[in-house]
Amino acid sequence: MSSTVFYDRFERHSHGEGLKGQSTHYCAGCGHGLAHKYLAEAIDALGIQDQTVAVSPVGCSVFLYYYFDVGNTQAAHGRAPAVAIGHKVANPESIVVSYQGDGDLASIGLAEIVATAQLGLPITVIFVNNAIYGMTGGQMAPTTLMQQKTSSSPYGRDMYMGQPMKMAELIAGLDGPVYVERVALFDAKQRNRARKAIKKGLQLQVEKRGFSFVEVLAECPTHLKMTPEQAESWVREKMLPVFPLGVKKDETRDAWYAPPTPNYEPQALLGAIGGSTEALPRYCSSYPAHIAAHDISLKLAGSGGDGAQTAAMLLARAGINEGFDATHIPSYGPESRGGTSYADIHIAAEEVLSPASPHPHVLIAFNAPSLTKFASTVREGGTILYDSSVIDAPPPMPDGVTAYGVPMTRIAADLGKPLVKNIVALGALQAATGLFPVDTFLTAIRQALKDKCAMIPLNEEAFEWGRQSIAPRTN
Amino acid sequence: MPQVTERPKPFLFPEFCKGCGRCISVCQKHSIHFADHINARTGVVPIEIDLDTCNACGLCMDACPEPYGLIGRPVDATDWELEDPSHLFGHRPTTAPVPVDIPDQRVALPACEPLVVKGNYAAAIGALLAGCRHFFGYPITPSTEGAELMASLMPKLQGVFLQAVSEVATVNHMYGAASAGQRSMTFTSSPGFSLMLEGISYMIGAELPGVFVNIMRGGPGLGNIAPEQTDIKLACRGLGHGNTHALVFAPSTPQEMLDMTMRAFDLSFRYRNPVVILGDGYLGQMTGRVMLPRDMVKPGIPAWAVWGDAMHRRNLTSSIMLAETDLEQHNEHLNRKYEAMKVEAMADTFVCDDAEIIVVACNTPARMAKGAVQELRHMGVKAGLFRPQTLWPFPVDAFLPLLAHARRIVMVEASPGQLEDELRLALSRADVRTYPPISSVQHFGGILPQQHEIVTRIMDLPAGSHAQAVSGSEVLA
Ligand code: SF4
Ligand code: SF4
Ligand code: SF4
After folding, report:
1. Which end of chain A, N or C, is surrounded by fewer C-beta atoms within 10 Å?
2. pTM for the whole thing?
3. How far apart are CA B94 and CA B312, in angstroms?
């Protein structure tokens, strides 16, 4: 009897009507039928029919799913290996077979097959190479031989069309695959080898050892314009010298593929995303409306290492901890790589509308270019804090704006850690504007450093020094 | 004494012979030859076997490419070749069971403090909450942080993060994972989204779910990496070839990035169709307050999945409908789905009840527009904001009532009118033939329209567009 891995009736072949219910759509003598047969036998022999997902390509074997009574997915042209990866990682217990022809695998899908082979997940690829495009009507394939005439190389393939792709050798040159073999179908001996190779390829997947690739030299009598018998001879005489048969790679690799089962525990998820059920204390009695009625905007500007973004994040976090809305948007991209780093922050009583700060209430400038660029944008009644250790000649400040020169870098350096100058700046900001109470800032700082507790005292000290630079403690 | 053998001799139904002759050359006993007649049902000359000379070596059966061509005759069989082939090979195409849904579960989350995260992170967290444990992606600015967060979180949740070799591979990994019934997503940005369109068309054709977060950047071509909204056309009108549509969400806050991504997964599976979330580069980078939902999803396996087990064995994922009538029926089915998706249209309005100037904007520009509308209101100008949260379907039903008092529509967008095109098309389809003139504030080089520009533009509109409230603050006071 025929393999039970083939459907009893090919319902998907013209709705299983008439002879099509038990005949393939392949031309007489086509190699695909044999490759199908050996694949079905191997699935049967390994007892994996219920695990198998076959990925059908585009090309003559596009209708693989007509025949195989396994899970079936039909892929876009050349993408079958990428689809196979999706299946394999979705269900690591599934046995995934990507069955592809030469146009599909060696031309349009070259990137996908090479990447998939190198990735090395246990997937089995059956590559049917018949040196010509079948479905589209006999055009030149990547594996077409030199001088071979096709409908798109009517005078024969020449150097201007490139040389035939030797996929088995190419794939075997990669680290990912465990097993690569090229087989043929032109006589009983070759067919026997082909059957064994296909089974071995699958077996290695079942054993979770890795990626396997079996290239099958097949006959396309139709487009070779030969009888099946002549086509068999043609493969033997013409293809073999270019595509030598044999094992190209057979590496011993222990079973390794055993990915874990996805975790859907709420606690694991909350732990991963940093979700906390613990409410932080609030220190603000009301929204700091003395700065702006509903929406305070700030700009922090400096160069890459100044920590403007970190300080901005702390401000947004502090505002949100206090129950306000807050946003932080960094300058980014090449801009941020060019050495400048700006952050726009909003803290709103209800809802931040526009998150940009073209006219901030507060500017913190860590270097001279930033101060020069943004000082004039600060609103009347606003505040500017700048690092007086690096800016000795500040530009004239706009009217109605209070400016403070704070030696941020020097204070931080005195503390032994120049990096904390942004925290010095936050301390100065607190003292100069009273944006939030001291504890609001300290809570946000401690929260941010909860995984680096040793850093907390230094940062607290930096914050306090920043405050004192504006309002020296009198006691 | 005749040799007793366990090996079967070959048997053939002539109608399943394609007459290729591959069995003839392999037979050492020369027991096979072409018949001297054409088979009336197939129109080809089948082979005939001389069983008397055959030694049951089996080589011919190995050489026959047809699954139901040369097969072994059961040794103990008598007369069975006279049976009807369909009887012999069974009536049922498969013995696989009929699959059933393994339903999703909602798992309660404890009440949590708000997260302070950027938009890209919020979308990634939304996906995790929605039960997505398969992420595929190719790095592209300005969407990459979303992928990077997934790279760090997926291993902690025993999920899969796979960096694909390209966006083409990405969408096909998603196709495979979705075909297996799993929730998968990607982060990309405009040029990457272009590359995914082929796969999205296949996903729609094959009715596969998946969530695409496209953090739009400046184009065409390589353009730049600054924020833009010029993929609205692509997402609403150009999801690859063929009759394609997908729900398109346009969040404008990190909170919406989370909420809409979570919702996208549910809708993607409900409709068995991809869902697109369009953000802009600014929103992706914007940090804000994000509340977590009350529950998360533990996904099941849908009945249609090609999971790779006995229960799902009979399933097929495919976008091929060879027969014209089959394809037409399939497209009619898709059209019904697209029609059903219209209930998902969503919009947010801000002080639109009496608005004479309707500002229309989505994503981050909608926040600038909201600021502008508030400023205009302070000046006594009756402006309101209409913010489509879904771009396809366009929430036209929510827009129509606003036309009653509107004198002018002002589009605010970081694109040369792609949102405006959606609005105009939606009005046209709704048979609205007269509506107020449309003005616009546009940028399309990676700059977003700013609040003051919107205010200025509206104040400069010709008289009659809005009540001239000269001393606006008095009006409001
Ligand atoms: S065209 Fe060639 S490859 Fe395609 S089915 Fe016919 S013989 Fe086979
Ligand atoms: S089984 Fe062997 S001997 Fe018999 S017909 Fe087939 S090839 Fe010839
Ligand atoms: S190999 Fe099969 S299809 Fe070809 S002639 Fe022989 S029986 Fe017929």
Report:
1. C
2. 0.94
3. 12
